Amino acid sequence: MRRAIAFLLLAAVANAATAQLPGLRRRAPVPAAPVLSGIDALRADFIMRSGADTVYFGQDNSLLGLPAKTTLTAQAQWLLQHPEVIVRIEGHGDASDTRDHALAMGARRAEEVRSYLVLLGVPAVQLSITSWGKERPGAGRAVTILVR
Amino acid sequence: MIRHGFLFLAAVAAAVDGAPAFAQQPAVSVVAIPPLTTPDTGSKGSQSLGIAWQATQMIVADLRSTSELMPLPPSQKDFYSYPEVTAPTFSKWRAAGAKTLVTGFVQTRADGRLTFACYIYDVDKGRELARKGFVVSGSEWRRAAHKCSGLAYTAATGAPGVFDTRIAYVAESGSGDGKSKRIAIMDSDGFDHKYLTPGDNIVMTPRLSPKAAQVAFVSYASGRPQVRVMDLTDGSAARPLVANDAISFAPRFSPDGSRIVFSMMLGPNSDIYVVGANGGYPQRLTTAPGIDTDPSFSPDGSKIVFESDRSGSPQLYVMDANGSNQRRLTFGGGWYAAPDWSPDGQLIAFTRRGGDGRRIGFIGADGSGEKVLTTGPSDEGPSWAASSRDIVFQRTDALRRNQIYRVSIDGTQPRRIEIPQDGADPDWSGVMD
Predict the structure, then answer these.
(1) Within a 13 Å sphere around the CA of B236, how many CA atoms are in the beta-carbon half?
(2) Is the pLDDT of residue B391 over 90?
(3) pTM summary value
(4) Shortest Cα distance from B294 to chain A (angstroms)?
(5) DSSP notation for B83-98
(6) Which residues in chain B touch residue A135, judged by CB atoms under 8 angstroms apart?
(7) Which end of chain B is flanked by fewer CB atoms within 10 Å, N or C?
(8) How confident is the model at residue B194 (pLDDT cuts 50, 70, 90)?
(9) More confidently predicted of B165 and B267
(10) What is the mean pLDDT of chain B?
(11) Of the candidates B185, B218, B209, B243, which has an alpha carbon nearest to the alpha carbon of residue B404?
(12) Strand extents, DSSP E, A42-134
């Protein structure tokens, strides 16, 4: 009789060890950081080391402020360390402008960024520019540097 | 009683207040368009009559779309016989209040084509003003009917009719950053709607050559905005306007269709260039630091109006067609953009931005008589009709969706042009041959 009870107890303990308690979940495995390769790794590294891939402007102008210059200086250092990388400088105009003025303003902002990077020693062959005008209204008054 | 008298006075005051506004309504001239007839008989006769009735309704719709003419509703009971086409009963139309009468006939020829004839009369004087005949095949009778509307409009108002014209625009679907855009073209009454590009690249600002034989537009096919030109008569693929990889945009044809003036960035800012419509070496017209864009030729080809922010804010400037003699046109405060010179040479339409948004307006080519036509707040990109009396433009609504509107320069309420999808960047052609 005793042995039978001890056996039952043992069985119950063994069961409890494998059973899930209600309300608790088995801890999921720690997600591994996705392994970036090729262009994605380069883009991630560019953004991490320069702080941002985008700089912003005031309304109706293409003047580089101090925050923009700080970001561009870091970007220039990265570009000098990666002479094999080509980037496209994509300018955006204001949504309140007319279509062609926004296109011209986006191009002028992109050109302003290109000139500043060249001034910091980045070879011009690494840099190309384009303008989205007001085709990408979500972008804001910005220039984005796209590693290609 | 006192209260009654007060109400009466208020009513009188309202009527007096209303009187000047009513007097400002443009004078409308009544046009009678009895159903076109046919000399044909039998089954051929009923086919010709069917086309004649559709053509009659088209002419009525064309003339109703103007602000100067008011067509009487067409009625089958006004049907007249073939001999009466050239000998109408003027007293009947005089009694109906009509100033102008349109008659005509449709005849099916032995070769299956149609003879389409159209006569315009001054009802008061009982005199013929104009006549025109066309031999057309298949569905081309629609264009003949538009030509007849143009004949009536010109006879009654002295201005060119805009019925046989086309409108190109950017058809948009989707929203925000993921919009799909295609160049589309249609007759100015919305018929014969076609897409010209497949929608795999962003495209913008189609500009038709004066007789709608070619269209210049901006395409991102190369990854950056560049002007391309497409021939509409042979359906060939679009080709780059300039053989370089510079950013180029804002194309417009010269009045004779032989040249294209446009903006290009060969240096740090956009300047205005002109080049042959079929290629060649671009000639630079502006050198000012700052944005120079949206050039538009005067109808005689001797001058170009354009937008420049060389003074600090976008304003309109006029220069000779070779780039000399640049001078500022607008001084009204706010900023001015996207000018279009009217086909009669008198007016320059623009987009004006002030604190309360973007509106469409016009100014005399000499810089006098500025007038704002629309209430905004997000209107832009005016393009003149061949009559120099109507303007088509883009209006963006609160949800950032674009639509095409048309407004008359006498300041009547803008009307939306019905298109299958959203639409941007409209451009109105000249009268086709």
Answers:
(1) 10
(2) yes
(3) 0.83
(4) 7
(5) GGGSS--HHHHHHTT-
(6) 177, 179, 202, 204
(7) N
(8) very high
(9) B165
(10) 89
(11) B185
(12) 54-56, 87-91, 127-131
